[in-house]
Amino acid sequence: MNGTESNSLVSAALMFNVVEYSVFCSMLLLSLLIGVYFGWYKKQDSVAEYLLGGKKMSVFPVAMSLTFSHVSGVSLIGVPAEVYSYGTQYFIMCISFGIIYFIVINSFLPVFFHLQLNSLYEYLELRFSKGTRTLASLLFAMSLILFIPVVIYIPALAFNQVTGVSIYVITPIVCIVCLFYTAFGGLKAVVWTDTLQSVFTISSTIFILVLGFLKIGSISEVIRINEEGHRMELFNMDPSPFARNTFWSICVGSVFNWLSHVGVHPGTSQRFVAVSTVKEARAVLLWTCVGYIWIRAMMTVLGMLIYANYHDCDPIATKMVQRSGQVMPLYVMQVAKDYPGLTGLFISGAISAALSTMSAGLNTVAGTIYEDFVQFILRGKQQSEAMQAFTLKVTVLVIGVFCTLLVPIVERLGGLLQVAVSLDGVNNGALVGVFCLGVFFPRANAKGAIAGTIMSVTLMTTIV
User: Fold this and answer.
1) Which site from 10, 52, 73, 282 is most exposed, i.e. has the minimal number of CB atoms within 10 Å?
2) Quick one: how far is CA 167 from the chain centroid?
3) What pTM was computed for the model?
4) Which CATH class is domain 3-374+383-463?
5) Read out DSSP for 169-211?
């Protein structure tokens, strides 16, 4: 670590005072209280209650939860950094959400809602075979368990940058909080903590945007600086597959990427079934798409503000920070230095986004492992509803502890991050393919589904 970076960390730690820590701790405390409420006063004593919220949840919290389970700390910090470095082409991804909404609402949602399954992959057993279900569940569980530590590591790194607190200290603290309300509160606790934490994420982003515009002077000035820096780019129609961001790679590519996260993801289908009617499920999907477009727009504008602020003094070139992912926390520190509590609110927002993704991921992957593997192991043994719910809670705790232990490995072995992201893409492509095969091709059989999935994973692994 060079001297400039050390000074940056010291000044940040001094700025992160009692007010900042109070804001951050209040977010963690409120999340814990929600876990206590649903864990002890509104006990989840059955699998349906624990995984699906009793199938009687309201549209608003479910839509908020689904939106922010996909707005991780990686997005909150990474998207502005991407726009700062390469321009606004990334925003064109929002077009894909409209396409996804049309596809899911007319094909996948009616099928999955009608079946009312605890595990989405049970559909593959009904449609193809037990082997297809097991293979798909295994691919999903592997990719998500490796991806969750990455989701935690990025905002933990930001926390370290603005406070000086070691990643090895903050990571166990936030993960213990997340494990507590996820394991003991079930889906209801996950949904309501996601809703609460979204308030921290949204409010911190809005405050930073307002202060950013006040510092630059006007919206028109921000646009002018970005245009002069060749950052205003939305419809780059370059057909080259080697170009970083184009209309084709961002918009068209995102359709398949988000289909895996919204159309055929166990966490999404879990929330579709958590509401009472198919009309409410459609409303959940609609508001999720609207919310995500809004969040993506704010992140894009934030990236433009950062570029307008640093266009003539790049903090990476001047060694103020080492990586583009550190530009966002640096910008917040500088903009919010005269406003006590705002830096704490931003860090709370980033950690909240990570917790939303982690809790949703743990709840989903635990449900998948329980329904698709644990139930198979325990077949023939009589278990009460309470015992099944207890087994689910233990599964969440075991997976959560394992993911927490992987975070230091992500920090020490940077290559693991790339492996996790690549594995997520490789497996998601295969899973989208097998579900599309089942829904759109009535004559497809189990042999074709398994062979296609294996070939897809093998080919994409070779390419990546």
Assistant:
1) 10
2) 20
3) 0.83
4) mainly alpha
5) HHHHHHHHHHHHHHHHHHHHHHHHHHHHHHHHHHHHHHHHHHH
